[in-house]
Design brief:
single chain; about 375 residues; 2 domains
């Protein structure tokens, strides 16, 4: 027996450590991956480096918030399904509590300086979208060669165009691009990814005309189960629904995206702000549960099959089509986000934020804080605020 082998943690330890990451995990998926690796691989040696890398590769093949799924996977690997539930909730809940509290503040009747903070932070969201999409392009382009690059570029363009032109039907374009790439590679019509996610298309058609909580649940489900390409692809998936259903104004949606970027934990928390605008605290909780439930489902039912998922050409072929389309959707979301700005000073804040993010390579949270400060200053000096 290897006396140096680390003992597995208790559920109490999982609750504490995953909760800590949920509290300090600012910066999105890259920060979450670093924190999880430091805990599980480097410090405690609960998981090997190879297994951790396999977890990253497999969760990137799944739809939904990849860093949340990685957190759930690591906890599942240590304590099974109870660990997955405890660790996943500990990772999610701190940021959810913070963003719901901020939603109550920003969507209530706040003073002008609070409105200014929201208007300033929201003004740079379009630049954040461009930065997020542009950061994903090089790696995807490097994985392609020859004629595959032509298809890659076509999928990016289709995703961007769909975001601008068809709004709530974007999810169909993402799925279609995945199926086209599968057919092109002759990977077969029964890819696991397609099989799991073909039935929501029928649900989309059934839910398209449903208002109220049914429409909110469908919006959250799209965010949690059909968002390929990173956390920021949820923005175009949500925007048309949130504004089109009358739950939020354009300015309030910009605030919601800024809050999702500035709070710890997964960016998918943004959907809770949309839920709060639609139906108060109950709507926020409903949206969060529906958005995060697929991550737990994917891991608890499929984590022991991750090796086959990583080596199966069918889900990889699907992602080779849906992934670039999702990148295009992120880039395309900058257009409606920029058009949502209603005051001239916000355009100036957007320009400054774009310089900091895209040229000076400053961090997203820092730029959001600076933009929020500019918005508060604008409110104090009497600049017009979006209402």
């Amino acid at each position: 027996m290897d006396d140096t082998a680390p003992s597995l943690p208790s559920l109490r330890t999982v609750l504490r450590e995953w909760g800590r990451i949920g509290c300090v995990g600012f910066g999105g998926p890259p920060a979450h991956i670093v924190l999880l690796r430091d805990l599980c691989v480097a410090r405690e040696r609960w998981i090997t480096e190879e297994e951790f890398e396999h977890g990253i590769a497999a969760t990137n093949l799944l739809p939904g918030p990849a860093s949340t799924q990685l957190a759930v996977f690591c906890a599942w690997r240590l304590r099974g399904i109870p660990g997955a539930l405890v660790g996943g909730l500990a990772f999610i809940v701190p940021g959810l509590v913070a963003i719901v509290a901020l939603a109550a503040l920003f969507l209530g009747a706040p003073p002008d300086w609070v409105l200014g903070i929201g208007a300033g932070a929201g003004a740079v969201v379009a630049a954040v979208a461009v930065q997020a999409g542009a950061s994903l392009l090089p790696a995807g382009w490097a994985r392609t060669a020859g004629r595959e690059r032509v298809r890659f570029a076509a999928y990016v363009v289709l995703g961007a165009a769909a975001t601008v032109l068809v709004g709530p039907w974007l999810v169909l374009v993402l799925l279609a691009c995945g199926f086209v790439e599968m057919a092109w590679r002759r990977a077969g019509p029964r890819a696991p990814t397609a099989g799991v996610h073909a039935w929501p298309v029928a649900l989309l058609l059934a839910a398209a005309g449903v208002g109220g909580l049914g429409a909110l649940a469908w919006t959250a489900f799209k965010v949690g189960a059909l968002s390929y390409g990173g956390g920021f692809v949820i923005i175009p998936l949500m925007q048309a629904d949130a504004v089109g259903q009358g739950w939020m104004s354009d300015g309030e949606f910009l605030n919601a995206v800024a809050l999702g970027q500035a709070t710890p934990g997964p960016v998918v928390h943004t959907v809770a702000v949309v839920g709060y605008a639609a139906a108060g605290l109950g709507g926020a909780l409903l949206a969060a549960v529906v958005a995060f439930a697929p991550s737990f489902w994917f891991i608890t039912l499929g984590a022991d099959r991750f090796d086959r998922l990583r080596t199966n050409p069918r889900p990889q072929a699907f992602l080779r089509g849906a992934g670039p389309a999702a990148i295009g959707a992120i880039l395309g979301s900058a257009v409606p986000l920029a058009l949502a700005l209603s005051e001239a000073w916000q355009v100036g804040v957007l320009a400054g934020g774009a310089v900091l993010l895209l040229l000076a390579r400053r961090g997203v949270v820092l730029v959001l804080v600076l933009a929020a400060g500019m918005g508060a200053l604008a409110a104090v000096v009497g600049a017009p605020l979006p209402r």
